[in-house]
Structure formats: structure tokens, C-alpha cells
């Protein structure tokens, strides 16, 4: 009986580890079916400027499982990355978002906005990635200048030259790049100036305790100064209070995302929101 084999086997029967292993196995088994039956749905969270105007949105994936309900990406993205399912999943997300953008463009609702899509390092480094993106952009007919890809510093664990080459190929088409979760990864300032980036996204971990945490204040000031001196835009994630927003504005940050403005919402809700922006009856001056 394995149970009695001694110390080394004990962890196999740790109920928490067992539960975690079961959860992982369940995810691994069920993600492919979820992709096939279109249960993976991008939600949209608006990005705002300092005047309270919506300047775009980030697509954030949700798994609407037919029995289990909404499963958050924090649960399934890591498994999808490890198993390689992220390639099919990421392609499905990008296709859905671009199709949605084409629809919003027809409604004239995307005026000057950019919609961003998260791209895992593993997906980015896939051989056919650049061609896949180009195909989707062409098939949906969207303006590539309206599309932004969010990548993280883990990208840089791989061949730097190839990373720059791939980013440049997409950027030459007009697609922009944001560096997500900036400050949490394997940052070396040397690579930053080599990467063809447009935006630094300050990780929400540095944002949430502003302005009380003096370390976070120093880090955020440094990131904003760094972005500006490199000619990059800077966006703060995880803005939950007006106090945090006002502090960031005072420090020179101009684009924000967070629960203060909106949680990620389904496409229909974001569309309604975009259309109300056009309606003079809903203008802010009342
Ligand atoms: P992320 O790209 O850094 O996205 C920001 C996360 O912060 C999102 O969590 C968002 O819902 C959450 N958030 C936004 N505003 C606030 C706020 O004011 N307070 C707090 N506490 N949280 C806020 P979410 O949607 O659970 O996504 C988690 C992560 O999963 C994302 O982090 C991203 O790394 C990954 N992810 C989501 N969708 C995709 C996708 O389509 N592809 C890939 N590869 N990764 C994705
Ligand atoms: Mg992101
Ligand atoms: Mg982030
Ligand atoms: Mg993240």
C-alpha cells in the first residue's frame, strides 16, 4: 500500500495537493472541449485617460463553463501554457477580438481607440505566430493600428534577436505593443531600449497601496520617469480609488485601468457603453 511507503510518499496523499492535482487534470482534460464549444469568451475592460474618456480596452478571457460557470484566467492560463493548449486558445481569443473589432468599426464606435489582447510568451514564440496574427487581421479586415498586443518580460527568456524581429514585423503593420505587469519580471533595463514597445503597464501590485506605501511611490515614480525618457506611454493597472488615480495624474501618468472605472464586461455591455459615449444625452456635463 503506497500510503505506508514512508516519508517520500506522504505528499501524494496531502489532501490539498491531491485537490490541486485533480483540478489541474480536470482543466487539462476539459480545455480542448471548451475551445471547441466556444466557452472561452473575451471580456473587455475599458482604459481611461485623465479626463475620464475611454481610450480603448483590454480583452480578458473568461471560461464560461456549461456546468461550473465562470472560471478565471488565473486558473486555466497557466495550465494552458504548460500543456501548449495556449496556442489554440490564444488564436481563438485573437480571432474573436478582431471579429468584434470589425463589428465595432462598422458601428463607428472604435474612434481612435486601441483594443489590447494578452499574448503568452509560449504563444509568441510559436513558429507561425506572426503569420497567424497577419492572417487574422487580414481576414477580419480590422485596422492593425487599432490592435495592441500585451506581452510580459518572460518573453525575454528566449532569443532576444528573434523576439525583436517578430515584434518589429507586427509593428511595421501598425500593431502596437504593451509590456504588461512591468516591474514584476526579469527586468533588465538594457533590453527595454531594444524592444520595439509603445506602452509600459505598471503592475497593479505597485498601484494599489498608493500613495501610502513609500516604496510603491518611489517605484511608480521611477517607472513613469523611465517610460517618459524612453518615449513610451505609461498605463497604470488596478486603479480602484479616485485617490490613487489623482496621485498617478499628479505623477504624470495619463492612462488608467481598474475597478474605479469598470470591471471587465461582456462584449455586449462594452458595446452599449461605447454607443452611449456617442450619445450627447449621456455627455458628462449635466
Ligand atoms: P493582466 O493582463 O495583467 O490583466 C489584469 C488583471 O487585473 C485582470 O485579471 C483584471 O480583471 C484585473 N483587474 C483589472 N482592474 C483591477 C482592479 O482595479 N483591481 C484588481 N484587484 N484587479 C483588477 P483577470 O481578468 O483575472 O486576468 C488575469 C491574468 O490572466 C491577466 O493579467 C493575464 O495575464 C491573463 N490573461 C487574461 N486573458 C488572457 C488571454 O486572453 N491570453 C493570455 N495569454 N493571458 C490572459
Ligand atoms: Mg494584460
Ligand atoms: Mg497586468
Ligand atoms: Mg498579470
From TrEMBL:
Residues 24-278 form the EAL domain. This is cyclic-guanylate-specific phosphodiesterase. It comes from Halomonas daqiaonensis. The chain holds residues 696 to 981 of 981 of the full protein.
